[in-house]
Amino acid sequence: MKSIFEGIEDLFVNVLFAPYDALRFMDSWWASNMVNWLLAIIGCVAFVYWMLQLKQYDANGEEDKSISSHSYL
């Protein structure tokens, strides 16, 4: 069992977090966290896009708004 946990540790430390280790040499907080800011911006843009699509879908009146949508209810 110990080798399984050591393998998981090796995967995360040496493979998955390697891009963050490459950015560790920078002294600037902003430059070091550029990846996190980029992912946050992508997430915000995706959220706004999804909400606009839901608003457009709701405005078309295509959604079934009956009280019971399933026959067994």
Please give a handful of descriptors for the protein shown:
single chain, 73 residues, mainly alpha, 70% helix, 0% strand, flat
Written account of the structure:
The mean pLDDT is 84. This protein is mainly alpha-helical and 73 residues long. It is built from four helices and no strands. The longest helix is centred in the middle third of the chain and has 26 residues, at 34-59. It has one domain (2-59). It has helices at 2-16, 18-23, 29-32, 34-59.
Largest sheet: none
Number of domains: 1
Q: What is the mean pLDDT?
A: 84
State the share of residues found in helices, binned by percent.
Answer: 55-70%
Helix and strand succession?
HHHH
What is the molecular shape? flat
Kindly estimate the percentage of residues that lie in beta strands according to DSSP: under 5%
State the total count of DSSP E strands. Answer: 0
The class by helix and strand makeup works out as mainly alpha
N- to C-terminal distance: 48 Å
Number of helices: 4
**pLDDT below 50 for ≥5 consecutive residues: which ranges?**
none
